[in-house]
Hints:
By secondary structure, this protein is mainly α. The protein has helices spanning about 5-30, 35-65, 80-105, 110-135, and strands at about 1-5, 75. Helix content is about 75%, strand content about 5%. Helix 1 packs antiparallel against helix 2 (about 35-65) and helix 1 packs parallel to helix 3 (about 80-105). The protein is elongated.
Amino acid sequence: MMSEIKIRETLGVLIVIYHFGLIGALSYFWYTGGFSFDEFTTTLAILIPVLSGYVAGVVSYFSKKRFVRTDRSRMVSRVFIGLSIFFPSALTLSVGFIMYSYAYGSVFSDFEQFKLTFAAIEGVFATYLATTANSLFRTAPNN
C-alpha cells in the first residue's frame, strides 16, 4: 500500500523522466540518421503536445505543494498503484519501441506507416493515462 501523496509524487517524477527520455531518444535517433530532419520534427510535433499536458499538470502540482508537510493522505489500493505506473511505462516503452523500429528499419516500410502507428499508440494510451493522471494531479485538495 502507498499513500495518495506518495503515488502522486512517484508518478509525477516518472512522467517527467519519461517525457524527457522520449525526447532524448528521438533526438538521438535523428542525430544518428534514423530520422530525417522533417521526420524528426513531425514526430516531435506529435510527441510534445501529448506529454506536455501531463508534465504541465505534474509541475503545477509540485509548485502548489512545494512546502514540506506531514503525509496524512489516504492509502491507495495496489491495483491503483499498478495501473498508475503501468500506463505511463507502457506508453513510454511502446513509443520508444516504435521510434527505434522506424529508426533502424525493422518494422515500418515508410514514414506514413510509422506516423499513423505512432499517433494511434499515443491516442490509445493518452486516454488511459489522462484518467489516472487527472485523478491524481487535478483533484489534489489538501494533500
